[in-house]
Amino acid sequence: ETGVTQTPRHLVMGMTNKKSLKCEQHLGHNAMYWYKQSAKKPLELMFVYSLEERVENNSVPSRFSPECPNSSHLFLHLHTLQPEDSALYLCASSQAHIGTGGYEQYFGPGTRLTVT
Amino acid sequence: GQNIDQPTEMTATEGAIVQINCTYQTSGFNGLFWYQQHAGEAPTFLSYNVLDGLEEKGRFSSFLSRSKGYSYLLLKELQMKDSASYLCAVMDSNYQLIWGAGTKLIIKP
Lengths: 116, 109
What we know:
By secondary structure, chain A is mainly beta. Helix content of chain A is 0%, strand content 54%. In chain A, strand 5 and strand 6 form a beta hairpin. In chain B, strands 2, 4, 5, 9, 10 and 11 form a six-stranded mixed β-sheet that branches. In chain B, strands 1-3-8-7-6 form a five-stranded antiparallel β-sheet, with no helix packed on it. Chain B starts with a strand and ends with a strand. The interface between A and B is medium-sized, with 20 and 24 residues.
């Protein structure tokens, strides 16, 4: 496996279900991100982990819960979602920003989530 | 507030040149990124500008003017495979990326 992988690629869940999205990066990076992408809207940053510590929450609803057990793995736990949460969820990784630097982010293919 | 503006959609002809503009207002500036995203796929990195001027990379070039809060992505010798969305993103003072909504580029034969 190379780059950033995400599973599952597609997920349909009811509003009362609990599910988890998984992301794994094989690039030796030490920062990982969860984004939400809705049609015709900018990417919305949900969570950032840098050096395995969460550094940004961005007022995401508590029905989304991230977990970063190590620098290569990132999870997004989902429960009691709403239909408006249907979107593409993208994971990305990069080198952590220590000082200056424009380290580009590398994205996984995303999980297409549909909440019914 | 922080804001990134870019056109929603553009159309160009195969073999031609197209310029996609991006204007921004952010709290701090640590560089501007361009990404390409084909339908149903992940965004992929194209370019990074932190100093004023033009950066050329093959058929793609990116320009930055920090004083004007302005950037453009120039695509030359357009090919059908260039049909995609092009995302502009600015890294703010907290080193977080602020994203535009993307420009959908349609290439016609």
